[in-house]
Amino acid sequence: MERPRLSLRAAADACGVSLSTMRRRREGGAFPGAERDPVTGWGVPVEDLVAAGFTVTGSVSAQAEAGEHQDVAGATAGAGPADRVAELERELLAEQHRREVAEVEARGLRAQLAAKDEHLRDLRRVSRG
To answer: Which of 32, 77, 36 is nearest to 52 (CA)?
Structure first.
């Protein structure tokens, strides 16, 4: 399965920072897995964002990655069954992407928590000694 990726703009929106911040961080090497697509521009793996210390909001990033959010009821009013199936498939893909983003962020947060726990243990050892 391919890792979830966000465009630089979607990454900036999902992390609550400016596009110029994302560009500077990419140019500085903060996103080693980033790849440039000649059509869509830079794609940054969500894992790279988390590893760089950003907090990615899953719902924002999934909508940004999936494209413009459409209201399913409004988009399919008067549409045939095939159109409804296609719309539901797109919605399913968006939900799967949201789950993947959440899982990546959760792993990153668990790693940060473990590092902070280790730091606290070290501080306790030093204060006792």
So the answer is: 32
Question: Per the confidence metrics, is the pTM higher than 0.70?
Answer: no
Q: Where are the domains of the chain?
A: 5-128
Q: List pLDDT tens digits, range 49-69.
A: 988 999 887 544 344 444 433
Burial class (CB in 10 A: 0-12, 13-18, 19+), 110: exposed
- For 24-44, the pLDDT digits (tens) are 999 999 999 999 988 889 999
Give the burial string for 20-29 (b: 16+ CB within 10 Å, else e): eebeebbeee
